[in-house]
Write a structure and sequence with these properties.
Helices cover 44% and strands 20% of the residues. By secondary structure, the protein is an alpha+beta fold. The protein has a single domain, classed as 3-Layer(aba) Sandwich (Aminopeptidase). It has a seven-stranded mixed beta sheet, sandwiched between helices. Helix 1 (13-23) packs across helix 3. The longest helix has 20 residues, at 38-57. The radius of gyration is 16 Å and the shape is globular. It starts with a strand and ends in a 5-residue tail after the last strand. GO terms for molecular function: acyltransferase activity, transferring groups other than amino-acyl groups.
């Protein structure tokens, strides 16, 4: 299903982060760092998602469905990885350690190992898919695919690869349908959280 996709407005960040909160309720990565349940867990996930959207929105490559907000995608453009951690804290992530507690904070810090894999796996300039989520009620309708298209097309035109991390086999299969290939299958040190790093080379037309 094709649909119009537009840039996220700052006024939509709260609503968009709520969508991502529902979309990632069962995400293994977020389940790994959060032991809380119910409203406390939802508050942590929303804090994380809102910070990501505030950070990425400054690059003008965060997109939503144009009518009702059913899905959200955020990209970091070539030349802007690694992520500026100070700017991410300014975007609201400073509150996350206080919400997680000490044990959750340590698990969250362990995720930074993904950055070293990222730098090793794709050192050249590239598009980085930071987050993509669709409201559970609208999954399977092609919304995620539509949200990917603006940057996949731009990456093809400009000759840049794309990169992402995935934490479920279902996500891996979804991205493979859009031309991504697996670079690495691994687990984070000290735990059994599996992850895949994936790359999409620009299509030659």
């Amino acid at each position: 299903m094709n649909m119009d996709v537009i840039c996220l407005e700052r006024s939509q960040i709260d609503e968009a982060s709520t969508i991502l909160c529902h979309a990632f309720d069962d995400d293994p990565m977020l389940r790994y760092i959060t032991v809380e349940t119910g409203e406390a867990r939802a508050d942590i996930i929303k804090c994380f998602c809102k910070s990501i959207l505030r950070y990425s929105q400054s690059y003008n490559h965060t997109y939503v469905t144009s009518k009702d907000l059913k899905g959200v995608v955020a990209w970091i453009p070539p030349g802007y990885f690694p992520i500026n951690f100070f700017h991410l804290l300014q975007a609201g992530l400073y509150a996350l350690p206080f919400k997680l507690g000490w044990s959750g904070f340590k698990r969250w810090v362990s995720l930074f190992a993904l950055n070293s894999h990222h730098k090793h796996d794709l050192p050249q300039p590239h598009w980085y898919l930071l987050i993509l989520g669709v409201a559970p009620a609208y999954r399977g309708q092609g919304i995620g695919s539509s949200l990917l298209q603006p940057i996949l097309k731009q990456a093809d035109r400009d000759g840049f690869p794309c990169y992402l991390e995935a934490f479920t086999e279902a996500a891996v299969h979804f991205y493979q349908k859009h031309g991504f290939e697996i670079l690495r299958i691994d687990e984070l040190p000290g735990n059994n959280l599996s992850f895949w790093t994936m790359k999409r080379s620009p299509c030659q037309r």
